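Students often ask what a holo structure prediction actually looks like on paper. The answer is less mysterious than it sounds. You provide the chain, you provide the ligand, and the output is a string of discrete structure tokens encoding the 3D arrangement of the protein together with zinc ion.
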Amino acid sequence: MKIIEKITSHYSTILFTTIILSFIVIPLAFTQKFIIDEDTQKIQIELEEPEIDFSANYKNINLLHTADKKVENVDFEEYLVHVVAAEMPVNYEMEALKAQATVARTYTLYQMQNGGKHKEADICDNSQCCQAWISKEKRFEKWEDNQQEKWDKIRKAVYSCAGDIVTYNGKPIDAFFHSNSGGTTEIPVNVWGGSNFPYLQVVETSGEDEYSQYYSEVEYTTSEIEKKMKENYKDFSIDWKSKEPIKILEYTESNRIKKIKIGNKNISGVEARKIFELKSANFTYTKKDNKIKFQVKGYGHGVGLSQTGSNTLAKQGKDYKEIIHHFYKDVEIQNIKDK
Ligand SMILES: [Zn+2]
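The corresponding structure tokens follow.
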């Protein structure tokens, strides 16, 4: 019923084109290029096949606005302007903004090709789910001055690399990014488990410590620690008088916490990060009297491109392609406009 109503509206042409692309052209293009591994259920690319034709789904995307649940059909590159405006500070270097735009473009295409997270849209505007998006009005309200100049800077960044995406074996990568790596990025298996991604490796970046996102502290009383643990584990208990009531058991390849013992529970660093609301799983702690203080390095999951690291590399004279090659290994940058 909804579809019929919409088709009769003045958006009918756009919608109809989108439907044709979504249900006929794109599936036809992709079924020939991907194979599904029966054992792992993972989609693999058939290397013998010609490269994927991205042009069919490049021009427009369906964006879900999570606040009012409305789906808007938007121009792909223009959508990215709003994403970069939401994801990265505008005072960052032009090449860092371009790297962010390329990564956001890649992330979007990856979602579209792998079914995405939403039935009704290609992607949503929520950073916790897909990637952040901000309206021009909201962005202008938040910027104190030179709003148009700032917006134009972001548009320039997006359009000067329009169509560029990051690929591995000819396929868009799952282009994870985060705020600050704390000096070293993480591999995905230590954050989400599952199979490894060859292009996401442990990468060191100098200069991350120059940003406010690099270091943070969170302090709790011992009773607050107990309360938070009990909210997650009903049978939690801890003897603060024991020799090591809290003990780090194992580190990941990037020196983040892999496993930590808190009282009678062994939990992952990622879990501890969530429970104690830490900015990353790269932390140490100190205990003084009845206070536990977490000292945290970096901001975010630490996988893929670091935004502050990108800015540092740009300041060192690296262009956006070099920045991308720093954070993603053995990848190529391909342009989907040319295809
Ligand atoms: Zn989403």
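The two ends are 36 Å apart (CA to CA).
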